[in-house]
Amino acid sequence: MMTSVPDTDAAGRVLSADGTPLKQSLNRALRRQKLRALALIAPLLIFVLVSFVAPILDMLFRSVENQLISDNLPQTVVILEDWDPNSGELPSEAVFEAFAGDLQIAISKKVHTRIGSRLNYEKPGISSLFRKAGRQVKKWDIPNDGPYKEKFADLNKGFADIEVWRTIKTYSGAYTNGYFLNSIDMQKGADGAEARPENEQIYITLFIRTLIMSLAITSLCILLGYPVAWILANLPSRTANLLMILVLLPFWTSLLVRTSAWKVMLQDQGVVNEVLVWIGLVADDSRLALINNQTGTIIAMTHILLPFMILPLYSVMQTISPTYLRAAKSLGATDWTAFWRVYFPQSIPGIGAGSILVFILSIGYYITPELVGGTKGVFISNRIAFHILSSLNWGLAAALGTILLVVVMALYWAYDKIVGIDNVKLG
Fold first, then answer.
1. 25 and 16 Cβ atoms separated by less than 8 Å
2. 271-278 helix and 255-266 helix, angle to the nearest 10 degrees
3. Digits of tens for pLDDT over the chain (427 positions)?
4. pTM of the predicted model over 0.70
5. What distance lies between CA 198 and its chain's CA centroid?
6. Cis geometry, peptide bond prior to residue 147 (ω within 30 degrees of 0)
């Protein structure tokens, strides 16, 4: 005789078909469902963590990391703490002896040139001191070849410069804010943070220029892209698709080719100036300066980024029913009133999406400004690329990138508060 599982247990809990409490069985089923969902998105999550989150975290770490000196000159750093850079005297003999021992070990590990390069970012000339010392210090019999203060001074008079030792002490910590100070045209002085000499202040100017020019490019893309998107959205499908190919055509052309074409067109003897001279708008001896300046950068980048504005606008405008305009006109509205009061508000989500896309892309461009911007039209991204590829000052590049990231996030937050990110749509 078969017995059925009771509906409830002794405690009054509802049971499932297998005899376990129903609540426990439901929780187990939900956990399995969540695990299956997690397994589906795990590859994408890992990809985002590896390709996006990890590089950002590494950038944040490099912007404050300074362990090279403390790890390779440990005895020198410890003894140097008791030296007062404002005393007007060189460090004691004990510092020079410890420095000789640390430097000899660093030479054996072939890292002394890296130490010199790191300190050279803060005081030019130190790199050559370490490089030249590497040829001689490795031959010394430490600690029997003293006094080392005199030996280093004889080796190179730079070692008798108080500023060299001040720099070593100032940047001897495992972590530093020096990169961020350099990023805002300041430096670590004897009494704390201080402004750099006026002829060395470039980064604040570059940050301001980058933001202003990016806003100008975004505004031009809106002015030029809105009419094009409106025409595409209101033409018959066949004609609109044909014209859309022309909009997408730049995507099929190399960025370097497009930028080089603008460089040729905008020069003094280029197509643009020749046409202006031919139609009489510009005198032959007063040709417009359109290249190697901010004008050239704005023109070239507006052309390159314009499709990124047109596509979001077009996708949003396609969803706007023409019956709204006809209804407004039937109620007595003029064409302009119908457009401004009915059509334009519905297209704002596309403007928002295109503006964010163009603005974020523009502040990160460095190839186009490098080719057509000269010295007056480059962005902060050009300096970041320079420090990564040429000067190898990755700490300063990371600090500049971090500040740029914070500025973008702040502008994004402000946009969300003023306009509302929920109003941004791609169609």
1. yes
2. 40
3. 445 545 666 666 666 666 677 777 788 888 888 888 888 888 988 998 998 889 889 988 999 999 999 999 999 999 999 898 888 899 999 999 999 999 999 999 999 999 999 999 888 899 999 998 888 888 888 888 878 899 998 888 999 999 999 999 989 889 999 999 999 999 887 777 888 888 888 999 999 999 999 999 999 999 999 999 999 998 888 888 888 888 888 888 888 889 989 999 999 888 999 999 999 888 888 888 888 899 999 999 999 999 999 999 999 998 888 888 889 888 888 989 988 999 999 998 889 889 988 998 999 888 899 989 888 889 999 999 999 988 889 999 999 999 999 988 888 888 777 767 666 655 5
4. yes
5. 25
6. yes
